[in-house]
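Training component of the fellowship. As part of building independent skills, the fellow (R.M.) carried out the full modelling exercise for a liganded target. The chosen ligand was adenosine-5'-triphosphate. The inputs are recorded below so that the supervisory panel can assess the work.
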Amino acid sequence: MSSDAPILEFQQVTVDFGDSLGLDNVSFQVREGDARIILGAAGSGKSVLLKTALGLLRPTSGRVRVFGEDVTDLNESAWFPVRRKLGVLFQEGGLFDSLTIAENVAYPLENNRKDPLPSTDVFQRVKEALEFVELGHTLDKVPSELSGGMRRRVGIARAMVTKPRLTLYDSPTAGLDPMTSYTIVALITKERCVHNTTTMIATHRYQDGHFLANYTYNGQTQSIEPRRHHGEDGDASTRFWVMREGRLVFDGTQSELGRVDDPYVAKFMKPRMDCNGN
Ligand SMILES: Nc1ncnc2c1ncn2[C@@H]1O[C@H](COP(=O)(O)OP(=O)(O)OP(=O)(O)O)[C@@H](O)[C@H]1O
Ligand SMILES: [Mg+2]
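Fellow's submitted model of the complex:
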């Protein structure tokens, strides 16, 4: 793959469920180091898009390329090595209740039978990933002993433990209070900046995108700080998408989103209060 080839590309991808379209003719390219904030109403296709990128749903038509490889027609076993290069935080969380936190985070490493790591390396990587999300003290606990926000942080540790170049976060702040949501999106920003991870987030919260587009992690001070923008259009590598009924109806920067007249698209621009005050 040449260095400027897209890391993820959809070409006119449709996912037809028979009675509805999960994705309707969606095309895009995402390049190394980019971030995408996928906004859209419930049922608009955000999760279907991410699951299609992971090969968990198959396109009815169109092409999908991951790291330059056309994966559209890969069979399930050929998908395994591709998936291993992707980090993922599922909307449902997906932690195994019966495993310890350390075992949960180790899972993507130990599941790699083709190229297994020695167990001391696995332990070291798990410890580092949990320390990154400030949960180094929870190795031997089980998920039910942690709060919802902590479990989400474990999910982030598990997504990053394989050091993926592309990480997909499905609704990482859903159901969390504003402070915990802030912690989660700050960790995602830190992960993006420290490892230059290409980052895609499906979310209902405009604030998550605003944070990712406008804040950065300073490794020297080890703190989050405002990003210095060049030009009036802000951070060009962080783009906002809006989905509606399986279609990608907006693709642009934060300031372009702010200038859109379309009422459906415009409503994702404003921080809105939901019934929990989030
Ligand atoms: N496996 C499936 N089989 C049939 N229909 C599906 C399947 N997965 C998703 N859908 C449908 O596709 C549409 C998009 O669903 P999706 O889960 O992507 O929405 P979403 O934007 O992620 O919503 P939310 O914000 O609630 O997470 C919905 O109408 C959903 O019912
Ligand atoms: Mg979803």
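The panel noted the following from the submitted structure. Confidence is low (pLDDT under 50) at residues 273-278. Residues 93 and 155 are 7 Å apart (CA to CA).
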